[in-house]
Amino acid sequence: IRDYKVTGVQTCALPILFQNLMDAARLADLAEQLKQDLEKNDRYVLSISTLKKTDEIEKLVKKIRSRLRRN
């Protein structure tokens, strides 16, 4: 994770910021993996791992959205 300046950000919000950044990076990685899976598979057949990736993407989005609404 990059170094971020603390100016203008409450110190108690920093762990939430870093968690959001880590989750967003994971989300981007999963989205890229999902795209690759969809490109290489038949358009009517999805593997279980592809479906699990979509579930994990949905969970990450909900976590990030929940944290952002609380702040």
Global geometry:
elongated
Question: Roughly how much helix do the residues carry, as a percent range?
Answer: over 70%
Query: What is the count of helical runs?
Result: 2
Structural class estimated from helices and strands:
mainly alpha
Compute the number of strand runs.
0
> What percent of residues are in strands?
under 5%
In sequence order, what are the helices and strands, one letter per element? HH
Distance between the termini: 21 Å
Radius of gyration (CA) equals 16 Å
User: What is the residue-mean pLDDT, rounded to a whole number?
Assistant: 84
List unreliable stretches of 5+ residues.
none
Taking the sheet with the most strands, its summary is: none
Write the topology of this structure:
Layout: H1 14-40, H2 48-70
